């Protein structure tokens, strides 16, 4: 991996040029250009993950999302990617041609995107831009902690995504409530998240994203990983559709100094346990930087 590609993959700033909401990312998981849409520029999130790279020590300055501006930014950045202008930018000029394809529009950013009240409207906006620019194969991806799947307005937006080449990438970083509380630091219960994963997987194929790490120099315990695998197995056994599992570790500066990446061998060991647990589900592995 050349230095330019490594920088592009490990550095995911939410601000690009003069944009407020839309930013380009060369994603190791998308294997191409992911056009990020930050619906939480105020940095407000219902999780406070110990590994998150978003700096929440600074009090956020609340800003509404201007949908007109967001649409302008999204359309312009995608057009620049289509024309090749984007890849003249110093950040992307040395990126291999194979990674210059537009893989997805990703609702992610500095918080949980489904908490944004107009999430459904943004999905419709992105769908219209895909249609206008003749990009039926570009995915709509939501990178989510799955805390709000039980809410009707969120379910409706997710269904709209599914009808337009959408994918849900849902977080599951634990197998027990105790470990979940340590990692995610949230008032939303572990049981609620697991119920929501069942709900979504019974409606659409979903991708599970799982980040494991060292906490105070300790990797997750054997029993924790077994419990995590049991949660995945239970989803599958109860007619849930798992499109894939992403097992990865810390690749950027985490929120807490006591968090560190697992070794490649430790990540592989967890991934192999997942493969042995699930039937015919792809398991992708991503190592630390």
Q: Using only CA atoms, what is the Rg?
A: 18 Å
The DSSP helix count reads 8
Beta-strand residue fraction: 15-25%
Largest sheet: 8 strands, mixed
Measured as a percent range, the helix fraction is 25-40%
Number of strands: 10
Task: Write down the domain tally.
Answer: 2
Terminus-to-terminus distance: 11 Å
Mean pLDDT: 92
Task: Classify the secondary structure makeup into a structural class.
Answer: alpha/beta
The residue ranges in which pLDDT falls below 50 over 5 or more consecutive positions are none
Note the overall shape. Answer: globular
Structure description:
With 289 residues, this protein is of the alpha/beta class. The chain has 2 domains: 1-171, no CATH class; 195-289, no CATH class. 35% of the residues lie in helices and 19% in strands. It has helices spanning 3-10, 67-83, 119-132, 152-162, 177-184, 190-201, 222-237, 264-277; strands spanning 22-27, 32-38, 102-108, 139-144, 166-171, 206-211, 213-215, 242-248, 259-261, 283-286. The strands form 2 sheets. Strands 1-2-3-4-5-6-8-10 form an 8-stranded mixed sheet. β2 (32-38), α2 and β3 (102-108) form a beta-alpha-beta unit. The protein is globular and about 50 Å long. It starts with a helix and ends with a strand. The model has no long low-confidence stretch (mean pLDDT 92).
